[in-house]
Amino acid sequence: MYTQLSPDGPLKLYEFIAMVTLVMIVLSQLPSFHSLRHINLGSLLLSLGYTSLVVGACINAGFSSSAPKKEYSLDPSKSTRLFDAFTSISILAAIFGNGILPEIQATLAPPATGKMFKGLLMCYTVIFFTFYSAAVSGYWAFGNKSSSNILKSLIPDEGPALAPTWVLGVAVIFVLFQLFAIGLVYSQVAYEIMEKKSADVNQGMFSKRNLIPRILLRTVYMIFCGFVAAMLPFFGDINGVVGAIGFIPLDFILPMLLYNMSFKPSRKSVVYWINISIMVAFTGAGLLGTFSSIRKLVLDASKFKLFSSDVVD
């Protein structure tokens, strides 16, 4: 928004990231996952609102006379197509890995199975309607040149914006608030790990003994995250790496392994070999996804400088 309103303005991307980091430092002092419940509800509404705006904007852009020429062909190189496919699988794993958080949260209180099922059903329903509608409409409107951040396609570097200014402005604001919520939710895991060692469970959550270490640790953690984000402005590539290294093992390998270890089905049973087959298939997919995602990250590394104002997709 800033570069559109003030193309020659002095502020850089890393300065905006620093501003966001300061806000996140303040919000990160919310003491527990339970204290984020209203923020989570707001996050859901923001996701639905953002998706509606983006899908409408993409449909409008697709029918616009100033829209770029659509090209749906794949890369002519077979190896590049193969690497892109596994990078995409890794990104999908990262997207659907969002279901891990409500699953973990559900297992903390009985009855775990019912709560887990409801949480995952809600999560995957939202993911399907938000991610897929934006992805399909964006690909339809811009073809294989669509950006992993579809707003960049709607606001091209050259030529007029392909959506009304107010739509783009509201969408960007929705994204900003949504990212605050996402950052808070995903940081809870790191906070839990840090505070298991730093907190004294015999004293109150807001006692001086627990409050001061919590403020210091969370502030340092957020500063570190902000510094890395400002230094390495990647987006789609990071999603692929996180999906391949983190979510594929967590979602598709570890559950099958734990099931076989816990319930010990017979080695002659269908369930046992289905689990083994899934583990083997997704181990291969994870390894190839990791290689292809890191390969793309390395290739894209030549396109940017540290603390650049251009996000690499």
From TrEMBL:
Q: Where in the cell is it found?
A: Membrane
GO cellular component terms, alphabetically, are: membrane
> What are the BP-aspect GO terms?
amino acid transport
**Where would one find the signal peptide in this protein?**
none
Spans traversing the lipid bilayer = 12-30, 42-63, 83-101, 121-142, 162-186, 215-235, 241-259, 271-294
Main subcellular location: membrane
Kindly provide the name given to this protein in its UniProt entry. Lysine histidine transporter 1-like protein
